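Q: Please design a sequence for this.
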């Protein structure tokens, strides 16, 4: 079995699916010399030497010509034998009588490295002749019909006996997802990402019991998410639609889920407690919906989760807090994004005990109290946003940590955050302004005998400092003399992270 990532922008995202996943990968990348899937792919054409008497089914050959003509590839009708000669985008398999059948057709310039036939987007259409390919397992059209908007043809439903992968990505398809798609009961991958599809998600999809990856993101789908129950589903992406209603608790029964993305819809209600069975889940993105609080207690049982993104949900009606041990057990968690969720109360100390945290965004809430001391143990932390909250007290970071995060550390607009004299903030200050927007802690200021007040004058001026008694500061900061190598590592880690946050990808199981 081969898995193929299509990332837009096309970038390698194996990071998310590292060792837990025993299947092999092929990644398509736009900016590298990695060969395309088809070059690696199984069974392209046949060799004259070994296949004396081999021939291609003539009806299928005619059908391929039709499909080629319909995409503006008229040149292809000059190919004497479509299964012979390793034509990119066409894959064939022999039967026991050495007759070759078309099993896969792919169109569209996915990247510079993939040589699938391109489509003429102004006049292309999906030819009905695909129904004359009785062995077809994969049908892949990418950016093919963009300027000739057309519905997804219902005749595709007749390919149900064989079709396993249907990808109609960024094709400008309009209208609803036809019920007939539910007739494709052998599908493993259904990818309709970035079209203009409207109407609701058809319940008929539930008939596709072997589905591994369902990507309907980037459309205009409305109505509630139906009670989907796919026992083998790994990827569910319904993001960037107009879906309403609650997150169905039936999703909790899709036990093999690895990625769940319902972001940027109008979903409301609470996150269902039933998600607790999703032990394989690595990414959950429910951001920019209208979800309400409190956060489910079962979150912490998502033991494989690497990225939890809930930002931009109002979490009303009452004030929602981050439960004290709400994330304990999420030992794999690398990315936690809880910005703009109207969260109140303290940041739990237990958050600093998640050893793999790399990106933490808690900005734009009403969190109060101090920054947990445990945060200084987060050795991999490279991006921390605590800005626009009501936090106070001394920031417990070592010089090394401040240097590691640099501009990815955001602390401005809090009630009374301050830094200790011996912390890394002093060193990293630009001579004209303090990019972190925090002041020197009071104790340190007096210890310092006002010596550095001059250089701090501009820092304080745009702050609304609430003169409160700040906590005693522990300034047992270890100063590292080797800042330079640390920085290099930090930059690399940050690069990897910006990839994880671009989780726009789909999985294709061939
Ligand atoms: C295909 O799906 C439609 C609508 O769901 C249904 O009416 C029809 O009977 C199905 N056809 C086959 C051949 O299964
Ligand atoms: C879907 O969009 C088409 C225009 O492309 C429109 O005519 C139709 O009414 C829409 N259907 C729904 C259910 O919104
Ligand atoms: C969000 O949900 C609340 C109820 O929790 C509702 O009152 C409000 O109208 C919803 N807002 C939108 C934009 O749907
Ligand atoms: C930090 O990241 C490294 C490499 O990505 C990993 O090996 C390590 O387990 C992580 N956690 C800690 C606490 O260093
Ligand atoms: C934080 O805010 C809550 C009210 O939301 C208040 O009860 C609590 O005392 C505050 N805690 C601190 C440390 O300021
Ligand atoms: C400061 O943060 C609060 C949220 O805690 C926000 O409402 C306010 O607009 C922010 N102020 C500025 C000047 O950005």
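A: Design:
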């Amino acid at each position: 079995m081969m898995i193929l990532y299509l990332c837009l922008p096309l970038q390698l995202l194996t990071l998310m699916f590292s060792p837990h996943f025993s299947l092999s990968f092929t990644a398509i990348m736009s900016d590298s010399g990695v060969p395309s899937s088809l070059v690696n792919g199984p069974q392209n054409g046949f060799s004259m030497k070994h296949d004396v008497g081999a021939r291609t089914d003539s009806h299928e050959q005619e059908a391929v010509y039709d499909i080629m003509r319909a995409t503006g590839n008229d040149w292809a009708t000059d190919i004497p034998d479509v299964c012979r000669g390793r034509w990119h985008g066409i894959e064939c398999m022999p039967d026991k009588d050495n007759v070759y059948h078309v099993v896969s057709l792919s169109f569209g310039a996915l990247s510079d490295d993939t040589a699938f036939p391109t489509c003429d987007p102004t006049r292309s259409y999906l030819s009905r002749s695909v129904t004359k390919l009785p062995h077809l397992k994969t049908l892949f059209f990418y950016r093919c019909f963009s300027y000739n908007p057309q519905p997804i043809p219902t005749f595709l439903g007749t390919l149900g006996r064989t079709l396993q992968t249907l990808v109609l990505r960024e094709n400008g398809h309009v209208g609803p997802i036809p019920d007939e798609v539910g007739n494709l009961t052998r599908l493993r991958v259904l990818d309709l990402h970035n079209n203009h599809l409207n109407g609701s998600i058809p319940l008929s999809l539930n008939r596709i019991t072997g589905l591994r990856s369902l990507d309907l993101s980037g459309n205009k789908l409305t109505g509630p998410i139906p009670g989907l129950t796919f026992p083998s589903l790994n990827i569910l992406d319904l993001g960037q639609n107009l879906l309403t209603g609650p997150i169905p608790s039936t999703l909790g029964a899709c036990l093999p889920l690895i990625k769940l993305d319902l972001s940027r819809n109008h979903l409301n209600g609470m996150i269902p407690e039933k998600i607790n069975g999703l032990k394989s889940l690595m990414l959950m993105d429910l951001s920019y919906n209208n979800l309400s609080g409190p956060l489910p207690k079962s979150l912490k049982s998502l033991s494989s989760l690497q990225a939890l993104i809930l930002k931009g949900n109002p979490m009303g009606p009452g004030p929602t807090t981050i439960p004290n041990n709400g994330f304990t057990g999420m030992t794999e968690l690398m990315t936690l994004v809880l910005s703009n969720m109207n969260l109140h109360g303290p940041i739990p100390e237990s958050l600093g005990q998640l050893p793999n945290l790399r990106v933490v965004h808690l900005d734009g809430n009403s969190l109060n109290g101090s920054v947990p001391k445990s945060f200084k143990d987060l050795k991999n932390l490279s991006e921390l946003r605590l800005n626009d909250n009501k936090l106070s007290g001394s920031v417990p970071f070592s010089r090394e940590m401040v240097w590691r995060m640099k501009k990815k550390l955001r602390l401005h607009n809090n009630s009374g955050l301050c830094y200790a004299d011996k912390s890394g903030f002093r060193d990293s200050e630009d001579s004209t302004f303090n990019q972190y927007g925090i002041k020197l802690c009071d104790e340190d200021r007096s210890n310092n005998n006002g010596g550095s007040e001059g250089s701090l004058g501009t820092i304080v001026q745009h702050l609304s400092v609430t003169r409160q008694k700040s906590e005693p500061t522990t300034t047992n900061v270890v100063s590292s003399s080797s800042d330079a190598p640390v920085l290099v590592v930090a930059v690399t880690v940050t690069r990897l992270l910006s990839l994880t946050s671009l989780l726009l990808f789909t999985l294709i199981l061939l």
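Q: Thanks. Anything notable?
A: Confidence is low (pLDDT under 50) at residues 1-45, 449-510. Residues 344-345, 368-369 surround 2-acetamido-2-deoxy-beta-D-glucopyranose (ligand 5) (CB under 6 Å).
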